[in-house]
Amino acid sequence: MNIKNYILFIILILSFFSCKKNQIEIDELNSFLQTNYEFNNRVLNKHKATYYNLISDNPSRKIEKINELDSIFINLIFEIEKSKKKSSNKLILSKSKELLQKLTKIVNNRKDYLTTEYDKLDYLKLESDEVRLNYLKNKLVISMSYAFEYASLKTISCDGLILVEIDSIMSSKYKKGVKLTLTSKNGQIDRENRHILINNLILNGKESKLKYKIEDNYSFADIKFDSLKKGTYHLNGTLRYYEREGKIDIPFEKKFSIE
């Protein structure tokens, strides 16, 4: 069962329990929600591991904000656990709402990575304080999991928009200078909506100010320079896509050498 279907299943169960139930039934529901939270937390940890492995190989993909939000999430879960009998605590509800709003920005408001299904049930109307808090915990952990999953995607495909990442850079000489060939296994997807921006080119620790020309090729694109000095370069750039909600930027960073 995927997370989306799992959410709908939870809502169905909670809708059934939203009317008055005896304590045994409420305890069973809390047990179910706690088990579900532990499952979702394992999924979150899996996406975290993928993300941290990704940024260790490609530091430009690091999102500073996601680490800050993860710390807020951990502290908030701790506060919820301490407040099992105080779900009306306005501060916890306010912090949760603020965190969820910030997480929607991490995933660029992509509907495939939002927990809008949770909004189909007004959990504040649930009879049990503990049920309300366990429901809130699940919503928070799934939102956090989506954020790390989205941040670690190599190829993003959602809402009909496909974004790709550069796999490698190969350097070669041509009759007018030096050519860098950017390759990507999905490089020909949505070519009209793809824009390549070069932020900087670093040679031996110093930024090089060079004119260049970008041309499409069979794999992705060529960046042509009149000349490049010998040495080790670090290329920092951005792949930019436009869609209804605005632009989406994917940073990339590659290392190459000129002999």
UniProtKB/TrEMBL annotation:
Protein name in UniProt: Lipoprotein
Organism superkingdom: Bacteria
